[in-house]
Amino acid sequence: MKKLMMALTIAASFAVAGPALAADKLKIGFIYIGPPGDFGWTYQHDQGRKQLEKELGDKVETTFLENVPEGADAERSIERLARAGNKLIFTTSFGYMDATVKVAQKFPDVKFEHATGYKTAENVSVYNSRFYEGRYVQGVIAAKMSKTGVAGYIGSFPIPEVVQGINSFILGAQTVNPNFKIKVIWANSWFDPAKEADAAKALIDQGVDIITQHTDSTAAMQVAAERKIKAFGQASDMIKFGPETQMTSIVDNWGPYYIERAKAVLDGTWKSHNVFEGMKEGLVVMAPYTNMPDDVKKLAEETQAKITSGELKPFTGPIKRQDGSEWLKAGETADDKTILSMNFYVAGVDDKLPK
Amino acid sequence: MMRIEIVKRPQHSALFSALSPFIALFLTLIAGAILFSILGKNPISALYSYFVEPLTEVWSIHELLVKAAPLILIAVGLSVCFLSNNWNIGAEGQFIAGGIAGSILPVVFPDFQGWYVLPIMLLLGMAGGMAYATIPAFLKVRFNTNEILTSLMLVYVAQLFLDWLVRGPWRNPQGYNFPETVQFSDSAILPAIWPDSGRAHWGFALAIIAAVVVWFMLSRTLNGFEIKVLGRSSRAGRFAGFSAGRLTFFAFLVSGALAGLAGIAEVSGAVGQLRTSISPGYGFTAIIVAFLGRLNPLGIIAAGLVLALSYLGGEAAQISLGISEKSARIFQGIILFFVLASDSLIYYRIRIVSRLSDTALKGA
User: Which residues cross the membrane (chain A) (predicted)?
Assistant: First the structure.
């Protein structure tokens, strides 16, 4: 075997090297967990990539790898992008965290940006979005619009990012209707249209009349449209898939961040950081408020304005945990570390958090 | 006017046995070139980035071995099952069971360290895979249950069990509640073979050893003879005094052990921790590898490398040509299709019959 390896190694060293690099352009790589056509999570990252290309024109050149599984494959894919001459690499799913850090150690002159994780290094930044701010607004709308007082929530995985959303949604709803409830179904996937559709149907059959989701396809929106109930989109504006169904959607707006970071690399001012940004910084954008009466729309806009200005923080006490114990005292606000590691429900969620 | 008939050969053709891989390769290149031209890409550079580019860099060859190791290990075990007519479709589950069992030490007892940790982990991984493969074997022998269904369904059980473990009891307490275990300590990591040039780990060496041992067993021992006889004709096997039930257990245990070994080698060598999913479907891809290698362990080594290459090539093509990952998958499909289609030439021949001779025949 050793011989074969040697032979291959020798063959390799004589073979042609990869295509020559355009020296003056900043090459930027992206790793996607799904296909850019999912119209959800990956679609929005790809929109961000396109905005970046448009804004910086011929100063940059972008490449992406789609459908990269988390785990052993991620490390290879990231390393391949680094070896292909990319000097800035965005890894856009939580599960790429350790792979990103490992590859970053091997390529100290390449800058890495990992979405939604927590491990940073000299050349690894972390960026995350306060999606839960948008969920709060959705909760307010849901409680105004719902007749049954119960919303259905399709979750992907019970990780902090998703739990934040569920809790923030119910807290928003409870400001309108203290008895508001949500039912949760876990799809155990980020992108599985068939499962997401089944989950939506099951929830509707259980009497919910509002559907919201933390999964990436448009399937739930389409089911809600068929059943003539209202729903919220996820990650991108899904109005095309439910013109009379979608009330709003949390749009992940990554473009400005990608442009800012690429410019920093071009200027030589890039530094590793760990940011958690939301409505104020423009990372979380709400799709137009539609399919609701004017007073609800007005309330939604007011809530959004308060969150944007910082006047309202969704996780501010008094808040009780699901088991009735006190989490936050009146006026107390949860810090980012607590928010980023949230693994319990607040009161009002009609589900047991999988542990 | 003419028509084409497919006629069974009286005995299999040695000529096509040798030629078939090359015919398949040739047809694949042609079909691939057409596909890439339709996509508006230069077919030559597309094929280059698919088949050659991944081999032009040392680190990439390492990655090839990383990718091929689990495929070969599992497929070698499956060849024993398939040759003996035991349709184990659940190698994915046995792979996961091995990964879980082997991870007990580094996850539950992270302070337990030393040179002996790794051998124990590998043995536990094999034991886990074996234990999990025993279930469909037992059900088949005792209740005559269809092992395709039971082994397949047990895959989902294993996946969900792993998911539960990693989210719950085995979750890293310092990990912000994300579903991952702790990172394994150095003594629990299967080391790289040549750490200076890339991350190929000893799992690949284990795969080669397993392939050679199983090849020897199949071709040179009574046990191997028994497997083939019972696989081709269980009646004849019974007359020879072989026990089909015992063989079913044997085949499932071998393939379970190898799948389990692949599981722990992947977790320990390539990932370094347990996650909610540890395999992008190796257990299923290995079924294809086993048949591409014609159920011959040495052929499986080559087949495993080819399939691993097609994964890496798909990635290279995405980067250098912007070809979608989907078309890379289609291309993999084309390869498999032509290989299997060309193999049918070994047992069948194509006869072109002209209408004229046909009517002449009827007239006579």
Answer: none
Domain limit, last residue, from A110, A129, A148: A129
Helix (H) or strand (E) holding B244: helix B244-265
Nearest to B86 by CA among B234, B265, B200, B215: B234
355 residues of chain A, pLDDT tens digit each: 444 444 444 434 333 333 434 457 899 999 999 888 878 889 999 999 999 999 998 999 999 999 898 888 899 999 999 999 999 999 999 889 999 999 999 999 999 999 988 899 999 999 999 999 999 999 999 999 999 999 999 998 888 889 999 999 999 999 999 999 999 999 888 888 999 999 999 999 999 999 999 998 899 999 999 999 999 998 889 999 999 999 999 999 999 999 999 999 999 999 999 999 999 999 999 999 999 999 999 999 999 999 999 999 999 989 999 999 999 999 899 999 889 888 899 998 988 887 6
Burial-class residue A210 by CB neighbours within 10 Å (0-12, 13-18, 19+): buried
Let me know whether A106 and A91 are in one domain: yes
CA pair distance B287, A100, nearest whole angstrom: 31
Q: Are residues A200 and A307 in the same domain?
A: yes
Q: Which residues is B264 bridged to in the sheet?
A: none
- Clarify whether residues B333 and B281 are in a common domain: no
* Chain B residue whose CA is closest to A12: B56
If asked whether residues A62 and A182 sit together in one domain, one would say: no
Query: Please, are residues B125 and B286 in contact by the beta-carbon 8 Å criterion?
Result: no
Mark whether A166 and A90 lie in a shared domain: no
* A260 CB-side CA count, 13 A: 13
> CA–CA separation, B80 vs B221, rounded Å?
13
How much helix, strand and coil, in percent to the nearest 5, is found in chain B? 70, 5, 25
Please, which residues 4-23 of chain A have a Cβ atom closer than 8 Å to chain B? 5, 8-9, 11-13, 15-19
Structure tokens at B269: 């060598």
Residues of A in contact with B164 (CB under 8 A): 354
**Secondary structure (3-state) at A129:** strand
Whether residues B264 and B223 fall in one domain: yes
Rounded Cα distance, A121 and B313, in Å: 31
Do the domain assignments include residue B361? no
> For residue A17, which phi and psi values (nearest 5 degrees)?
-75, 170
Domain that holds residue B3: 1-8+16-41+323-355
Q: Which residue's structure tokens are 């000097």?
A: A87
- Chain A stretch 216-235, residues whose beta carbon is closer than 8 A to a beta carbon of chain B: none
Residues 57-96 of A with CB under 8 A from B: 63-67, 69-73, 75-77, 79-81, 83-84, 94-95
Residue A288 and residue A249: Cα distance in Å, rounded?
A: 8
- Assess whether A229 and A114 both reside in one domain: no
Total of domains in chain B: 2
Same domain flag for B77 and B125: yes
ipTM over 0.85: no
Pair (B215, B192) in one structural domain: yes
